[in-house]
Amino acid sequence: MAAVGIVVWTVIRPFPGTTISLGDTERWTQPEFTQLEAVVVYAYLTNGYRQALRSERHRNNRKARWLTRAYLIVSLGLAFVAVSAALAIVDRYVIG
What we know:
Blueprint: H1 2-12, H2 22-27, H3 31-34, H4 38-95
Helix pairs in contact: 1-4
């Protein structure tokens, strides 16, 4: 149950991210933007992509870390259930 809570709270819950705004993309078709030198346009776009990538990479790394922790908790829970079942079998058929 704890693993499910961790996944819901830290992985599924939406976090704010960095995106390129639609207003910004609308400017890309306007003459003041299309008449710029190609190097300036590429630098501008690359900077925007870099910022968005950094933000998304951070969010994905955080989610991966919590998914790993939840996986470990579920694995420990399953191991506990297996040990409990083995002890119950031994108690019923071997000892008693």
